[in-house]
């Protein structure tokens, strides 16, 4: 068994014993000097107290300055400078409640780059503008209590000044916290208010009065040690000459080795354990530190390797489409920013190419989603195989892909697009059960100055080219020209597209109109259907222009979420009063979205006071039927009713009524118009009776006159909707009774 090394306590006990013996010898000499040194020590103590006070003031100032600079670096401060609309609310509820500033902060303010406060507040104790000499620390007095006023710039990552912050922090609490007084009795510190205030910080020390600490034993001991310093120094010098080599060998060198290892670990955490720490130490505590440090070093290396691997995996997951392996939309937008940074000052020809699979929804509906997924994989692999080296393929959503062709002329882009089309046409899709030929349409747009063509503009032009390429009489590849814009009849106009995109992603200018759905028996409004409109200046963008653009960019879930948030705000503000209700339209992608439950769970408190209906079109039920059924059942359990919308306009099937959780069936206006033909009336009556017998309630759309409403009521329709009862409006209509 290895001999255990003595502990550091044993060595220290030996040293202390020797030191006490020497001090006992020296104390006999020093007792004779006590009276002589008393006055001298008093003078020395006052001098030290002044130095101590100066250090304490400087320490308190540095701490408050550090807190002010930390406040200037706070992310929320930058956000307020960039968007000061809610500065008053933020100042009241967040400015002083965070841990950035100490509890004894009196006030804090934020200024813009011109030095003007973001918003004037009646309660603010700080000036409205940053003074010219903002780097001077100033004390403001409240009675005899001083507060330190400091300014600090707010900068971005490039070092540019975005604005300024100012803090007003009580100085005495910080002075007491950081002072650590040993000579001064902190409880006796008193500050005389100056005749003229405010004053610079450096004048503060002259206003402070204090008493020295009274400790007779310490005073006597210090006087004895001062008198005996020369004698003690000679004796300790001799001991040090003998003891120094031993201390160097026993303590200093091992500690230096450990220190060097810690520095190496901090600077190069992935390095292996150095050989200098392989030899054991002669002190038990240091040996334990060495072993622990080596073990920690090895564990840290293992953790770093694991983290590196996980980071690579997470980065790939965040920037790649898991189905096709192509880069995703996030990577698309990030790559565009990289291109702007690289080619900002050069004229480099760049082409944006959009790829879209023709009739892909029909492939999904006919052969199932597994076959559709295989088609997506093959096409992504095929296009990537045609693209040049280092050119990335992005999946923007659904069946839409995109790529940037760098240093590429329009002629070269057309050639690459033709090869992509030919390679796709030659791919074998029959092995997945797809018997029809699979083709793609390609829209191209070209630019050589990135700052003149932002990403939204390029995507719009590529969309217009794609729209042209999908026309029956056109080639499947199209390069954008200004003439194409006119042929789209305003559907893809630049301002319309940008307005719709901004409304969908940020909710700006998005408005909810409400159309009443009435009880045909009583004529009273039962609930309202929520319909979307976008107000762009004086122009009201209608659904006929909104939805084609949203579907082209696969933004249906984003639009639905913005609409849901707007309706929820209307419920919170009592715009939709208790006792009524609202019907929300959900797009097919939203019905099968994994997040749909989270989007709508906030409505749960309104289930008892309002009628809440979710309208789903038949097309949403045809695709991914199992997932749609699962989500709708969960929403139904929350308290929503489910309505099958536009029944009779598309792929009508009673199978969905039997399997899906449907409470209400809304007959499309095309079925309602069967009333105008005596022969076709029978079809309408028969359908209505079957659905009513199955336990569903009926809603008729497109009712414009009282006679139609009366006839529908006789057939068995419970509710009606149409211009007879009210047009969609921003305010809730109260329709007159139809009788």
UniProtKB/TrEMBL annotation:
SMART domains: EAL, GGDEF. The chain crosses the membrane at residues 12-31, 228-251. The keyword Membrane applies. Residues 493-739 form the EAL domain. GO terms for molecular function: cyclic-guanylate-specific phosphodiesterase activity. Keywords: Membrane, Transmembrane, Transmembrane helix. SUPFAM superfamilies: EAL domain-like, Nucleotide cyclase. PANTHER family: CYCLIC DI-GMP PHOSPHODIESTERASE PDEF, SIGNALING PROTEIN YKOW. This is Bifunctional diguanylate cyclase/phosphodiesterase. It comes from Candidatus Endoriftia persephonae. The lineage of its organism: Bacteria, Pseudomonadati, Pseudomonadota, Gammaproteobacteria, Chromatiales.
């Amino acid at each position: 068994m290895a001999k255990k090394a003595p502990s550091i306590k044993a060595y220290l006990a030996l040293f202390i014993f020797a030191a006490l013996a020497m001090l006992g010898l020296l104390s006999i000499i020093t007792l004779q000097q006590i009276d002589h040194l008393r006055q001298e020590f008093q003078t020395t103590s006052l001098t030290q107290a002044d130095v101590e006070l100066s250090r304490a003031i400087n320490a308190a100032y540095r701490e408050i300055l550090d807190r002010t600079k930390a406040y200037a670096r706070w992310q929320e401060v930058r956000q307020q400078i960039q968007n000061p609309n809610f500065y008053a609310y933020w100042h009241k509820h967040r400015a002083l409640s965070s841990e950035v500033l100490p509890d004894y902060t009196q006030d804090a303010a934020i200024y813009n780059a011109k030095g003007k406060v973001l918003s004037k507040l009646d309660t603010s104790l700080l000036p409205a503008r940053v003074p010219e000499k903002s780097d001077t620390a100033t004390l403001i007095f409240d009675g005899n209590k001083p507060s330190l006023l400091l300014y600090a710039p707010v900068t971005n990552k490039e070092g540019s000044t975005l604005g300024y912050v100012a803090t007003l922090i009580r100085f005495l609490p910080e002075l007491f916290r950081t002072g650590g007084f040993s000579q001064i009795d902190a409880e006796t510190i008193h500050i005389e208010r100056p005749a003229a205030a405010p004053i610079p910080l450096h004048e503060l020390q002259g206003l402070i009065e204090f008493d020295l600490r009274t400790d007779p034993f310490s005073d006597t001991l210090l006087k004895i040690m001062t008198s005996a310093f020369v004698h003690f120094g000679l004796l300790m010098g001799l001991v040090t000459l003998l003891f120094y080599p031993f201390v160097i060998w026993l303590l200093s060198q091992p500690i230096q080795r450990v220190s060097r290892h810690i520095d190496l670990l901090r600077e190069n955490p992935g390095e292996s354990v150095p050989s200098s720490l392989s030899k054991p130490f002669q002190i038990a505590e240091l040996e334990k530190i060495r072993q622990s440090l080596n073990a920690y070093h090895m564990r840290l290396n293992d953790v770093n390797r694991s983290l590196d691997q996980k980071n690579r995996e997470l980065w790939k997951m965040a920037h790649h489409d898991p189905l096709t392996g192509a880069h995703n939309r996030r990577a698309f937008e990030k790559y565009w920013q990289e291109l702007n940074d690289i080619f900002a000052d050069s004229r480099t020809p760049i082409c944006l190419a959009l790829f879209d699979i023709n009739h892909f929804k029909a492939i999904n509906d006919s052969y199932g989603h597994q076959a559709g997924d295989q088609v997506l994989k093959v096409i992504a692999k095929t296009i990537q195989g045609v693209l040049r080296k280092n050119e990335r393929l992005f999946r923007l959503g659904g069946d839409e892909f995109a790529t940037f062709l760098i240093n590429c002329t329009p002629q070269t882009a057309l050639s690459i697009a033709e090869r992509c089309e030919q390679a796709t046409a030659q791919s074998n899709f029959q092995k997945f059960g797809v018997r029809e030929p699979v083709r793609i349409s390609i829209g191209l747009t070209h630019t050589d100055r990135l700052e003149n063509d932002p990403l939204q503009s390029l995507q719009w032009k590529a969309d217009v080219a794609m729209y042209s390429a999908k026309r029956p009489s056109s080639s499947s590849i199209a390069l954008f020209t200004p003439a194409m814009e006119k042929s789209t009849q305003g559907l893809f106009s630049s301002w319309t597209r940008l307005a719709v995109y901004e409304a969908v992603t940020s909710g700006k200018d998005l408005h909810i109109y409400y159309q009443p759905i009435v009880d045909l028996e009583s004529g009273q409004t039962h609930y309202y259907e929520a319909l979307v409109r976008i107000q762009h200046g004086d122009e009201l963008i209608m659904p006929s222009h909104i939805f084609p653009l949203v579907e082209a960019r696969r933004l249906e879930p984003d639009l639905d979420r913005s609409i849901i948030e707007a309706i929820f705000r209307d419920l919170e503000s009592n715009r939709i009063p208790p006792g009524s209700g609202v019907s929300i339209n959900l797009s097919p992608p939203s019905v099968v979205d994994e997040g749909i439950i989270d989007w709508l769970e906030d409505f749960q408190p309104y289930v008892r006071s309002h009628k809440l209906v979710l309208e789903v079109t038949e097309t949403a039920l045809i695709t991914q039927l199992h997932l749609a059924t699962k989500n709708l059942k969960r929403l139904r359990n929350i308290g929503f009713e489910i309505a099958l919308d536009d029944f009779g306009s598309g792929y009508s099937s009673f199978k969905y009524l039997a399997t899906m959780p449907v409470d209400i069936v809304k007959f499309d206006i095309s079925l309602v118009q069967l009333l105008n033909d005596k022969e076709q009336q029978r079809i309408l009556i028969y359908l209505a009776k079957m659905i009513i017998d199955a336990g569903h309630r009926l809603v008729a759309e497109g009712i414009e006159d009282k006679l139609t409403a009366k006839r529908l009521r006789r057939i068995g329709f419970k509710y009606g909707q149409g211009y007879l009862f009210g047009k969609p409006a921003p305010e809730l209509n109260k329709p007159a009774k139809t009788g």
